[in-house]
Structures are given as C-alpha cells and as structure tokens.
Amino acid sequence: MRAFGNRSLVTTLAMSVLAFLYAPILVMMVFSFNDSQYTGLPFNGFTFRWYEALFRDDQMLTSIWNSVYVGLGVVVISVLFGVPAAIALDRYEFPGKGMFRRIVMLPIVLPGIITGIALLGFYLTIHLRLSLYTIMLGQGTALMCVTITEVFARLQQLGKSQAEAAANLGANDWEIFKNVTFPGIRSALFGAMLIAFSISFDEIAVTFLLTGRENTLPMTLWSLLRREVTPEVNAVATLIVFLSIILIVAGMYASRGNANEREA
Amino acid sequence: MTTGIELRNLRKLFEGHGHASWAVDGVDMTIGAGKFVTLLGPSGCGKTTTLRMIAGLEIPTSGQILRDGQDITDQPVTDRDMRMVFQDFALFPNMTIQDNVAFGLRVKSKRGKYTEPQIQQRVAEFLDLVHLKDHAYKKPHQLSGGQKQRVSLARALVTDPKVVLFDEPLGSLDANLRKIMQLELIRLHRELGKTFVYVTHDQDEAMAMSDAIAVMSQGKVMQFGTPREIYDRPANRYVASFIGHAHIVDATVDSKQADSLTVRLGNGDRVGVRGKADAAPGSAVGLMLRAEDLTFTDTAADAIGGKVVDSLYRGEYVEYVVALNGNSGVVHVHARTDLPQVAHGSTVALKVNPAKAHVVVH
Questions:
Q1: What residue ranges do the domains of chain A occupy?
Q2: CATH 3.40.50.300 in chain B, residue ranges
C-alpha cells in the first residue's frame, strides 16, 4: 500500500469513520446500564434495572412479539411467492418476462410512505380490516422482491447443467428440486429471509399506515420517544443490536459454508 | 430395423432478441450400436445442440430421432436411458462422490430395481473402474478437474445405459490430463461395448478415439466417415482445411486415367494424384497438399518448384513455408530435423506423394 502514502493517516481516517458510526450506539448501550432516570451523564453506577423494567412492561413485550410475528409472517409470504417466481424467471420464457424482472424491484425503490398509502387505499377499497395481517401482507408483497432477486441471482449463477444432469439420470421434477435446486439456493434463500425479517422488523412507514389497534416495536419506541429518551428504550435497543449481530454472523456462516459446495 | 441411433433431417431453430438462426440445419446420420462416433466442428457449428437433441434436453424444430427403429423424438429426457457427461461435470456439490454416482440408481423411476446393498456394491464397482475408490466420501469440491470428470463418467455408466453422450468432456482439463483421459475413454468403450456419441472441437481427440467422425459446420454435416477417410479423402475444401495441416492449391484437371489423374498448377507444374475424382479434364479443383506428404527433391522432373520463405523448428520436425513459383500458392513442408537445414530464399523442388495427394472439387 505504498501508493496510499501515510499509513497513520489512513488508520486515523478509518477509525474516525468507525467511531462516527458506532460511538452513538456504544453510548446508548452504556446508558442502558446507567443507574439514572435520565439518559445522560453523570454515570451513577451499573444496574440491570432498566432490563428488569423492560421485561415487566407488557406494552413493550407485546409490541416486540408483534414485530417478531409480523417479521415471521413476512418471511413466510416472501418465500412462498418469491421462490416459485425466481424459478419461473430462471427457467421459463413467458411474455412480459423482461418487464417483470425490472419492475419487481420497484417496491424497494419506492419510498415506503408511497407503498403504504397505495396499500391503505387498496385495503380500504376492498374493505379489509386493518390488523397485523394487513401489515404482513403489505410488507410481504413489498419484500418478496428481495427473495426473488437473491434466489434468481443464485439460480443464474448455478446454471442449468446440474438440473439437466439430474433429469438425464431419470429424476422427476420434485426430485430435481429436492436434490439439486433447493440445496443450491439454500444459503441465498436463508440470506433473503434474514434481510426480509430485519427490514420488516424496523419498518415504520408502511406499518404506520396499515396497522390496526396493535403496535409493532418501532411504533411503540417512536411514541415513547416523543416524550423522552428513557433508559428502558436504551435497554430494548441494546437487545436488538445484539440480536442483529447474532443474525448477521449466522447469515455469514450460512453463506460461507455453502460457498465451496456451490461450484463443483 | 437399424440398431443404434438414426437422425433424420434434424433441424433446430434458435430464436432470440429478434433474430432466428438454424443451429442445426438438416442433419442425417446413423450412429451404429456400440460405435464411438464423434461430432467435430468449431464452436457454434451445432454439434452440442445435436447431442442435446439426442439426449432430449433440446426439442428439435423438425426432423426425427430414431433409436433401434423406434421414433423417440418426443420421448422426455428422463425416459431415454442415455446418459450424458457434461463439460462442466455437473456434479451435485452437496452430495458425496458416492451419492453422486448412486443418484441415477436411487431416483423414483428406478425404485425397486436395485436394493440398497446392490446400489452400494455397484457404486463401489464403478468408482473402482474410474480409479476413485478412495474418494467415495469426499465432496466434489475436494477433487481435481480430472477426478471430477471421472466421477461424472462413473455416474453416467453406473446405470448401465446403452448410449453414453459426451459434451466436450475434456474441454476444461489441461493437455496432459486430456491425453490420459482419452486413453481411459477408449479403454472403457472397448470394455463396455456401449455406444459413445462424443462432441469435441479438438480434431486430434476426434481422430484418436472415434470409429467415425461427423465434421460439422454451420449446422450441417460436411462429411461423415472414418478418421482415415476424413483425413486422407476429405469430401470438400472445408473438411480438408479443418483437419490436419493441409494447404489447398488451386489447380486444373489436366488429364484423367483409369485410377489416377494429373492436375496442373497455376505455374504450369504438374502433379499426379492417385484415385478417382468427380471432375472432368479442364475443370478447376483444389489440390490438397499436407505438410507430411511433401519432401524436398534434387530432380526437377515430376516436382513442383518454389522458394523457402520461412522455417520453424518444431522439435519433432522442421516446418518450412514454401511459396510456389508463379504465385500459385503456399504450402508447408515437414522435414526431418537431421537433414541439412534449407536456407531462407533458396529455390527448392518438392516431390508430392501421389498416394496421399488429394483433389477436392467443392
């Protein structure tokens, strides 16, 4: 790295970027253990009080569960519809295929508020009662494109010859899917599921418009924050940070374990 | 009834992005049972598409495929019982070598045909046949290219098909490994007595292994014959120039005898050619001269004259590039390396082996 010149300068720059990104999160984590009513200095001592409060707070617990429930539903919807769509795109020629491939990404590009308004109008028109299920449906249809694009990209990368070899050896369509196609896309699918879940988990624009009486976690946090940043909010955020790290590491391991096996 | 595979006026149209072209354009061919037949040609000549149509992986636009006299044109790929060896091996990466080979024995359509111990035994037997006994529990990514191709071969052979199809199976291997695998394939063909249909763009490979070669170009078969026929008696200029180091010199038929003819080059030199040709005296033909059939001679009589313009030391022989007198063409001459070196610019006389010189009409 001679061309890059000053090594210590590069290191300093890199460290400052990391600090800029992660210092606030670190501060938040620290304050979640601070024995004080207010978020801020001085640090009065270490406590698990806010975590205990969190696990006694029914409203918070319900909203966490609602978020998880919606996230899982979104994952199910996006897999159920996304995988067949990706396989169809990869394998078959049909009219409008090129168009479909391009507009399938639209829900992710469009601002969430637009998607939300459109879906809200649609649901009201067909008299669908707003609930957690309308959120699932709304996010699921939007996030399906993550599964479609991830799985489609993997299928393209895998190529046709393994499936052809299986057919040539006498395997029927189901045997080909079970033994060749599914093992090939497994890690991409897992990655897409993680992405869909985590986007759904902190989605607020679509959720805000489509929710009924129940609240998801981001909505609850947001309404709490309108009053003040309580240490309890810090505690729940800290837990989510750890959960995210676990999911990211799991995702990385899943795709790494598969990388060798993909090409052969 | 013909045994083996018969292709009747087979055609395949490829459409895409607004234009369509015939990838295979009227192929007629009979591949005898138990033969080793090679489809040879440059990329895009339709050889792989023809093979894929035989396998059932591609649906012909028109024409027929017959197997032992039965029309199998519309039979699905899963029922054809012809096994294919792919260029990229197409092994199942998530399965062990053993499970890869056993795959064709465990599919539903074969259920009940073999018990699990029989499958184990058969797989072991065929892994042994391709010298991979010790690798049974490895995954494909742990093997080298040559080993992967042998797994692919075992996977095809283990189901005991009558026909094995090869799509450039040695294309991704290095030169030494190719030579070894060629010998392996010849051995397997001899020992197993199955029909091998083989696709390659490598003429040496085709010559060395095949009972018969179909030279293809632009979707058509240019010549179908034994390697010797194709090399010594090419049917047309295309085949003559595609196979071996041949140079074609424009000539005119001078006179015709019962089983030989004399042709005259542009510069007036005459060359005697043994064999028959479908050309009347006075008609324009191409005289095929191969580098190994030309020798330098001291006598000008019955020889063609030229001038050495280049020489390349090839190790096995010295290759001279000779421009014929009167601008009538360029030929290459392979000379033994122990003969005295011929200097650039020297005037030379070349003697043509009349048994090997050949005239192409088209």
A1: 50-262
A2: 4-232
Q: Which residues of A touch B145 (CB under 8 A)?
A: none
Report CB contact under 8 Å: B141, A263. yes
Q: What is the DSSP letter of B279?
A: -
| CATH fold group of domain B4-232 | Rossmann fold (3.40.50)
Structure tokens at A112: 């969430």
Say which CATH topology domain B246-360 has: OB fold (Dihydrolipoamide Acetyltransferase, E2P) (2.40.50)
Tell me, what's the ipTM?
Answer: 0.82
Please determine, for residue B167, whether its predicted confidence score (pLDDT) is greater than 90: yes
Q: What's the first-to-final CA gap in chain B, in angstroms?
A: 34
Q: Report d(CA B258, CA B355) in Å as an integer.
A: 15
Burial class (CB in 10 A: 0-12, 13-18, 19+), B170: buried
Q: Which residue spans of chain B are classified as CATH 2.40.50.140?
A: 246-360
- How far does Cα B208 stand from its chain's mean position? 9
CATH number for the segment(s) A50-262: 1.10.3720.10
Residue recorded with tokens 């800290």:
A238
Judged against a pLDDT cut of 70, whether residue A192 lies above it is answered with yes
Contact A165 B86 (CB under 8 A): yes
Overall average pLDDT of the A89-95 stretch: 85
Distance of alpha carbon B294 from alpha carbon B333, whole angstroms: 6
Partner-chain residue, chosen from B55, B94, B104, that has the shortest CB–CB distance to A170: B104
Structure confidence by residue, pLDDT tens digits, B206-259: 999 999 999 999 999 999 999 999 998 888 889 988 888 788 888 888 888 878
Phi-psi label, residue A40: left if phi above 0, alpha if psi -120 to 50, beta otherwise: left
H or E, element range at B135: none
Segment A107-144, tens digit of pLDDT? 778 888 888 888 888 888 888 777 788 888 888 888 88
In a mutagenesis test of the B interface, which of A93, A161, A169 is the best target, namely the one with the most B β-carbons within 10 Å? Answer: A169
Computed over every residue of chain A, the mean pLDDT equals: 83
Which of A168, A262, A263 has the highest number of chain B CBs within 10 A, making it the mutation to test binding with B? A168
With vertex at residue A146, the alpha carbon angle to CA A65 and CA A82, rounded to the nearest 5 degrees, is 90
Confidence class of residue B2 from pLDDT cuts 50, 70 and 90? low
- Write the single-letter amino acid at A125: T
Distance from B57 to chain A by nearest Cα, in Å?
7
**Which segments of chain A does DSSP mark as H helices, in order?**
7-31, 49-56, 58-91, 97-103, 106-109, 112-125, 132-158, 161-168, 173-176, 182-201, 205-210, 217-225, 231-262
Q: Which residue has the higher pLDDT, A93 or B165?
A: B165
Taking a C-beta distance cutoff of 8 angstroms, is the pair B291, B245 a contact? yes
- pLDDT for the residue B246: 83
DSSP class of residue A179 equals I
